[in-house]
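Morning F.,

Quick status update on the modeling queue. The single chain you submitted on Monday has been processed. Sequence for confirmation:
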Amino acid sequence: VQEEKIFAGKVLRLHVCTMEGAEWLEEVPEDTTVEKLKERCLKHCVPGSLEDPKTVTHHKLIHATSEKVLTDTKTVLEENIQDRDVLLLIKKRAPPPLPKMADVSAEEKRKQEQKAPDKDAILKATANLPSRNVDRTVAHHNMRDFQTELRKILVSLIEVAQKLLALNPDAVELFKKANAMLDEDEEDRVDEIALRQLTEMGFPESRAVKALRLNHMSVTQAMEWLIEHADDPTVDAPLPGQTPAEATAEAGASSAEATAGPSSEASAEEAKDELTEIFKKIRRKREFRPDPRAVIALMEMGFDEKEVVDALRVNNNQQNAACEWLLGDRKPSPEDLDKGIDTNSPLFQAILENPVVQLGLTNPKTLLAFEDMLENPLNSTQWMNDPETGPVMLQISRIFQTLNRT
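Structure tokens below.
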């Protein structure tokens, strides 16, 4: 007995198929390379094909179950092929021939024919069409009117929500919890979509969270901050004032509990006064915070700080829009922002008649969302994605768009 036969590997029986439908059984030791197996298969199905050395490289073996292309240099054992496995022998697709110069010229000519017309061609083609008066500034003002109208809607809905929630016998308790939630929310809430966008760019999550909080959840501004402070040794330091804020929140909660203690025995008038105070606390926490970068940039143009803050408040912290407001007629004014919508208007009536909005107005979280969006419009994305407040905002938006088109 030859020595090599004593230590020979296990023999595997493999079913081999071709795309033409041929099928046969190959018996090979498990230490056989895929290339040798391929040669045996080609001898079986294409006699004489091995005279051309390129024939082997032009074919490949595929494991039928896993759909894996087998590597020529590996053995059957290394490719984890088992007894009675099915392999498929196929010829590789030939690369497409390079286009001829005539074909290239024809393709370029076709692209030129399909090229979009220039301004002169458009004017020539539309010369005989009746002209229509289209004021481009109207579209811009309509967009601004939408923002102003939405703000008015929120102002009026806040008043309705406060009245509805005040009728609840557990109103004081509800708003104590809401007030505490607001304290926690201020520190912990981060727009998940914005955070995911930054982390997908490669920024560390903790650093991205800090950047978003510093930039009012604006992805663009947060990204600029991260790039600007990439080499800053204090970039990962916690935000200043976090601990005092938490202490203030705890103190506020304890003071709220202290004032709310006798409310169960107090008169309805005292409970109403207590609610008013809580509403004021919530409003103070939602004061407008101008974008510090925009403030500096606009003040460098020569504007006073107060008018810059007013411009950013009117224009939702958008620097370019605030600059246009400062250079223009300055409408709407900051005072207009605190005015609500006409409660007898069809728009407001349609909003109040919506069942989703009606249910949402009885939820303290909806009131908090309205307050937040009123003073910090950049946070609206977070409330739109919230399972409790998102449906309410969606209905308001749909109603506004529907009535605005009619």
